[in-house]
Amino acid sequence: DPKIKAEIQKVKNEIEKFVVWIFQHHEESSRSGSKVIHDGVWGTHRYEEFEIALINSPLIQRLRQIHQTGFTFLTYPSTQHTRFEHTLGVTAQIGNLYKALKDRFEHTPHCREKKNLLGDELYRTLRIAAILHDCGHGPLSHTSEEIYGKYEEIKLLKSYDPFKDAGPAEIFSYLIIDSDYFKEFLSKIKDKYELNIDEELIKNAIVGHAPNPLDTYKVDMLHGPFDADKLDYIFRDGHFSGLPLQIDLDRFWYSLDINTVKKRINDNVVEFKHLTIDWGGISSLEQILFSKMTLYPAVYHHHKVRACDCMFKGIIEYVREKGTKLMKDGLEIDFGRASQFLYFTDPEIFGMHGLVKKDECLHRLMHNLQFRRLLKRAIVISRDTVKEEENLYKYVAKTVQLTLKDGLEYYRWLAKRIWEKASKPGLFQEIWVDCPKDPSFGEVNNTWISPLGEGQEPLPFKDFLPMEQYANQYKQKKWRSHVFCRPEHIDKVSKACVSVFKEEFGIEFKPLAFYLCHVDLPPELLV
Fold first, then answer.
1. Which of 46, 326, 343, 378 gives 355 a disulfide partner, CB atoms 3.0 to 4.6 angstroms apart?
2. How many angstroms separate the first and last alpha carbons of the chain?
3. Alpha-carbon span 411 to 416, nearest angstrom
């Protein structure tokens, strides 16, 4: 379709323009030699001279000003870590992962024939991919990604390889690396340091795409069930949130292997080479998954964190609906295109109201978020707060499935109904129905346990861990949806919620739905 091709080319042109902009004042460092960097989570690691050349580029230095976990620092004050530290940590973990495999293949007799699966070129390539993997993140990381990920151009890109399994920021990272300007920049580094690297693998590892099934293990190291990215963010987010997460990494490294896995694709049996874990490392895998399950309700889906996310969405919605134009370095930005988010970092977002003509509403929206005058819960919707469970599923299906699959912002329509029923208190951008999607545990279905002996096949991890039961338990006891509004409007909005949810879904609430919000509703409103 010519229209689709034209739209894809438009996105590529926008990314090219951004890369030229971000590099406009870059000067190559005269520093020579490798560099030792100490990290608060992983300790001291050495980065080679060519890696430092990439790390010192404005593309990566920009990540110093983007919080790793969005607005969690307004709830957990010590979560001030950024995408930059995470980038260094992922690079260090790629090194640990690779060295663990190399050590196994060199010292384990029955694995020595696998030595040819590794090599210096692969090692350098994956380290570079780790350094670059987050360069496409917008401000506040996944908070802005939740917004522009629903833009039409991103949905279009996600319908094609190699982006089908990639997140919006990963797609941007791929397109940045694929831009003409960056390719020229990387070519100079290759020539200067006489590097042999696989540039296609750099991009594909970031978006989780392996054109050749026998190369899947290479992609697995950065974008797989138990990759270097996941290891770093689980440890780092847990550490700075103050949550005591324990993973036996020594056993994990010792258990790593690469094996052939046969999968049925349509009517054909296809052989993949995957990273696998020995039986002795199963407990380490369980610890990784349980740590992820701990972080979601305690950190990522904490109601105050979600309230902040909604406030930011409200700011972007306000800017777009008002047709507000922001002037930045001579560029006119209205957040109408996904690529425009790349021009901002977190401090610039907080100073955004200074980039437009005086707008008291925008100023107040920004200051409420900046100085933590947060939206509050008017109602809690969960399995424990509704009377009939099947009606809750109707709500989830409409607000989550339609939003994710069709891009239909049903939750905004629902919020508008509540706002109108409550006689339109405050700005519409200050009332939100927030229905977070369940955490993904799909990695269980694509994780494999190494065969016990010669002639045996790798076994799926799901045979050892009943993840479906744990996922269902999460949905039943930990998943919560909320309606947020300004504190002074809670009584009106809570009453409106009772009417709208009854009319739209047949949902009737238990007193707990309001008790959790510290709201006392008249008994006649509750069934």
1. 326
2. 54
3. 9
pLDDT of residue 527: 53
Choose among 300, 279, 28, 8: nearest CA to 146: 300
Q: What is the pLDDT of residues 349-373, one digit of tens each?
A: 988 766 676 788 988 999 999 999 9
Question: Which tokens go with 485?
Answer: 């509004």
Torsion from C-alpha of 411, 413, 414, 418, nearest 10 degrees: 130
d(Cα 430, Cα 339) in Å, to the nearest integer?
A: 25
Which one, of 29, 52, 130, 31, lies nearest residue 89 by Cα? 130
Query: Residue 224, Cα to own-chain centre: how many angstroms?
Result: 14
Q: Which residues pair with 509 in a beta bridge?
A: 386
In one letter, which amino acid is 467? M
The Cα 286–Cα 499 span in angstroms is 43
Is 204 in contact with 177 (CB distance < 8 Å)? Answer: no
Q: What are phi and psi of 483, to 5 degrees?
A: -115, 125
Closest CA to 276 of 266, 295, 261, 298: 261
Give the H or E element holding residue 204.
helix 199-207
As a whole number of angstroms, the distance between CA 445 and CA 427 comes to: 44
Distance CA 101, CA 122 (A): 12
307: Cβ contacts below 8 Å, ≥ 6 apart: 374, 375, 376, 377, 432, 434, 482, 484
- CB atoms under 10 Å from CB of 242, counted, come to 12
The vertex-355 CA angle with 351 and 357, nearest 5°, equals 125
The token pair at 59 is 């593309």
Strand pairing partners for 449? Answer: 277, 459
Tokens of 111: 């694995």
Residue of 386, 377, 391, 253 whose CA lies nearest to 305: 377
What residue type is assigned to position 275 of the chain? L
For 188, the token pair is: 């100079």
Least confident residue range of 23-27, 218-222, 354-358: 354-358
Convert the pLDDT of each residue in 499-523 to its tens digit. Answer: 999 999 999 999 899 999 988 776 6
CA 290 to chain centre: 18
pLDDT of residue 6: 92
User: Is the bond preceding residue 162 a cis peptide, omega within 30 degrees?
Assistant: yes
- Decide if 82 contacts 63 (C-beta within 8 A): yes
pLDDT band at 392 (very low <50, low <70, confident <90, very high): confident
**So what's the pLDDT on residue 353?**
67
Torsion of CA 188, 127, 30, 190, to 10 degrees: -20
3-state secondary structure of 267: coil
Q: How are the residues of the chain apportioned to helix, strand and coil, as percentages rounded to the nearest 5?
A: 60, 10, 30
Q: Structure tokens of 15?
A: 């990314």
On the question of pLDDT at 291 being above 60, the answer is: yes
Residue 511 CA to residue 521 CA, distance in Å, equals: 8
